[in-house]
């Protein structure tokens, strides 16, 4: 039986993309939802309770986007700083709406104890096209370093720079979806001229810790809270999640600085990346958003208790 994956429809197998292939890829991307009506409208509702600011602007052809951040109004130097980011990968919907739902429904529970900064949709072009990359076929979540190539990442780095050394917590809200395996990983292999090696998608929620500075008790506190909302992804028969060995139940570790991941933004002692699985038959859209909110609340609770 032939199990060789079908070649990606753009480019020549084994040859990295050039300008022509990137242009062909871009021509296939279509706007499928509205950043303005689904994200900016929610942020506007929050202006009465929070400070809202544009921290950057994107221009891709005729498309223009304002990058928006939400900040607690009574910012005080004696309070710990909490950073929440979502939509670094625009297609990961609960990352965006989980962040907004947290601000709308739960942030008031904490704003007298923390300084809160939220960037709910880091990649609006990709949000509208339900894609992982930006319009230049660059993954923003590999660009959080000085030589990063994504303007989305660079703008967020500029926003966070003043608090980089003071932050107590950074939680970055993501999803792992079936399209990671059917579209985004094959596209990545094709773009880079590498062979695509099929894998499996974990069924359930998991976290990504920093391999160089792990915080296992913190990660487990988040896992235990989220488990009240949705199921935790079990390890596969190799003891792995998404091709990475499990460090603890529901937790894997990546070298976040080496990879240029978003949680490399600060030197916060508590950092984690959530991974919700929206394609599970055991999870609804509401559960996915609620899982993100539960993760943020548990992370803040832990950080406040362990200052």
Explain how this protein is built.
- The chain has helices at 19-27, 35-45, 93-105, 124-129, 151-160, 178-192, 216-226, 256-259, 285-305; strands at 51-60, 63-71, 81-86, 115-119, 167-175, 206-210, 240-241, 244-248, 251-254, 270-276.
- Helices cover 33% and strands 20% of the residues.
- The chain starts with 18 loop residues before the first helix and ends with a helix.
- With 307 residues, the protein is α/β, with parallel strands linked by helices.
- It has a single domain, classed as Zn peptidases (Aminopeptidase), CATH 3.40.630.
- It is globular, with a radius of gyration of 19 Å.
Biggest pleated sheet? 10 strands, mixed
Please tell me what the overall shape is: globular
Helix-strand makeup class = alpha/beta
Which stretches of 5+ consecutive residues score pLDDT under 50? none
User: How many strands in all?
Assistant: 10
């Amino acid at each position: 039986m032939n199990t060789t994956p079908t070649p990606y429809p753009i480019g020549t197998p084994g040859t990295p993309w050039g300008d022509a292939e990137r242009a062909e890829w871009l021509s296939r991307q279509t706007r499928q939802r509205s950043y303005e009506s689904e994200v900016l409208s929610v942020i506007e509702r929050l202006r009465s309770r929070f400070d809202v600011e544009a921290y950057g602007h994107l221009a891709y052809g005729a498309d223009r986007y304002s990058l928006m951040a939400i900040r607690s109004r009574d910012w005080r130097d004696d309070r710990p700083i909490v950073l929440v980011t979502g939509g670094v990968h625009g297609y990961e919907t609960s990352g965006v709406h989980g962040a907004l739902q947290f601000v709308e429904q739960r942030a008031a529970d904490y704003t007298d104890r923390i300084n809160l900064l939220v960037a709910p949709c880091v990649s609006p072009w990709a949000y509208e096209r339900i894609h992982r990359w930006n319009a230049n076929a660059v993954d923003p979540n590999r660009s959080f370093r000085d030589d990063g190539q994504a303007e989305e990442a660079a703008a967020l780095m500029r926003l966070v720079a003043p608090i980089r050394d003071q932050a107590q917590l950074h939680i970055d809200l993501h999803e792992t979806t079936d399209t990671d395996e059917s579209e985004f990983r094959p596209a990545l292999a094709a773009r880079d001229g590498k062979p695509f090696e099929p894998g499996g998608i974990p069924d359930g929620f998991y976290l990504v810790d920093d391999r160089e500075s792990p915080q296992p008790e913190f990660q487990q506190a988040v896992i235990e809270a989220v488990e009240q909302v949705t199921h935790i992804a079990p390890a596969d028969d190799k003891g792995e999640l998404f091709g990475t060995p499990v460090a603890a139940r529901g937790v894997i570790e990546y070298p976040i600085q080496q990879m240029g991941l978003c949680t490399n933004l600060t030197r916060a002692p508590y950092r984690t990346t959530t991974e919700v699985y929206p394609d599970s038959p055991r999870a609804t859209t509401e559960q996915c958003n609620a899982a993100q909110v539960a993760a943020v609340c548990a992370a803040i609770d832990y950080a406040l208790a362990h200052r």
